[in-house]
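Dear Dr. K.,

Following up on our conversation at the group meeting, I've run the structure prediction for AraC family transcriptional regulator from Paenibacillus sambharensis. I'm pasting the input sequence below exactly as I used it, so you can double-check it against your construct before we proceed with anything downstream. Let me know if the numbering doesn't match what you have in your notebook.
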Amino acid sequence: MMPFLLAEFANMEHTLPLYVCCVGSHEQKWLERPDGYHAHQLFLSRSGQGTFRIEGQPDLTLTPGTMLLLPAGVPHAYFPDQSSDRWDLGFAAFNGHAAGPLMEQMAPQARTVLTTSRFDRLWDQLESLWQLISLNGEQSYWEASKRMYDMMVTLLEGLSADKKSAARPAVSSGVQHPGLQTAVKLIHDHYNERLLLANVARAAGYSPQHFHRLFVASYGMTPQHYILQLRMRTAAQLLKEDASVSVERVAESLGMETSYFIRMFKRTYGETPKRFRDR
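The predicted structure tokens came back this morning:
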């Protein structure tokens, strides 16, 4: 755990283009901010599960390995789900002259649930930032600014890399293992069926354990996550192409139970399939 740490940099906010306001992680309780927060915030959900309630949009559920980028001044509240024993939530708040343009560039990633294969690296950077400020206080202002910027670049880099990998999985990913390409083709041909990964691994000529290791090393995500992303992208395309299609029909076409499909879609895109379709 990293107890809440307020970064006081003695008016350096007028000098630094990007500065840290606070950083930490703890077992999150109910917190409500009807007027929003004065700085931009990056949240990282490490374990447990919780809900963000942001004014003007559906609730967002953060599960382990997910993140949320929240602009300054947006009214919100967040709290752990009753089904979760403990919600370990990390956070870093930042501001400065460079924060506005940075958040403008990342507007498509804001106020929605984010996932990236760089999550562990981001958490390490968060811990490093906390330790820096905790040990050095005001003497760390320049280095803290650089590390906060590095975190945001890591987030943007991870989201961009994962998007490219997902868009070109079997053709241009550069994977050197023919068996993996066979497996990915099998997944794309049968993603809407009940796929047993042991059977996929066997078809590729690997043991399940070796297949899992190779897949994560090559694609930056587990086979299960890859299949889920493929299903969610297909669902989004179906909802965009046909405004009259029912959520139940889309779930059925993906081989998913409706309630589970809705939950996974909301986790991926930050809103329900119905709202996504209607919008």
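Two things stood out to me. The chain is about 45% helix and 20% strand. Residues 125 and 150 are 8 Å apart (CA to CA).

Best regards,
J.T.
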